[in-house]
Write a structure and sequence with these properties.
Elements lengths: L1 H6 L11 H134 L4 H21 L1
């Protein structure tokens, strides 16, 4: 080194190292490199390969899990759609059933109303017929009574009026007794 320093005027030149130092540094570098190549690099490569394999398997599992999740999601969506369709169908059936029941109730009520009206009409007709029959019977009695009184007396208009009034009074008295 002193030669190098002397040749350059006493300054150290890093580009021109001493030959002894250069040889020992090179030997140490080669020994360390060989030791690293035989002991460390294989383990490092093995560790990197294991890490790479683990990453690949994790990615594959993640992909399978994603695919499974998508399949489950599709199944869920299909079941939800089916449930909605079923609920909609059930609601529609209930609506139709309610409408049918409503129509049946209306028809039954109308039929009952018609039967009630028909029964009332029948009763009214029977009552009217009975009243007419009673009236005919009563008129016949009255006519007979009037005729028998007329036969008993010769009537002038005043006598006829008195006779009718007396007959009406008799009828009122009979009605009051009944």
């Amino acid at each position: 080194m002193s030669l190098i320093l002397a040749a350059e005027g006493g300054k150290f030149n890093p580009l021109a190292p001493e030959p002894g130092l250069f040889i020992w540094t090179t030997i140490a570098f080669i020994v360390v490199l060989v030791l690293l190549a035989k002991k460390v690099f294989p383990k490092l490569q093995e560790t990197l390969a294991d890490r790479e394999q683990k990453i690949k398997s994790d990615l594959e599992r993640a992909e399978k899990t994603r695919e499974e999740a998508e399949r489950v999601l599709e199944d869920y969506k299909a079941k939800v759609a089916q449930a909605r369709e079923e609920a909609s169908r059930m609601i529609e059936e209930a609506r139709e059933s309610a409408e049918s029941v409503r129509k049946d109730l209306i028809a039954k009520a109308e039929q009952d109303a018609r039967q009630t009206v028909d029964k009332a009409r029948s009763q009214l007709d029977a009552e009217r017929d009975r009243a007419l029959a009673e009236l005919h019977s009563q008129l016949a009695e009255w006519s007979t009574a009037i005729a028998s009184r007329i036969v008993d007396k010769q009537l002038d208009p005043q006598s006829q009026k008195n006779l009718v009034e007396q007959f009406i009074d008799d009828l009122e008295q009979e009605g009051a007794k009944s």
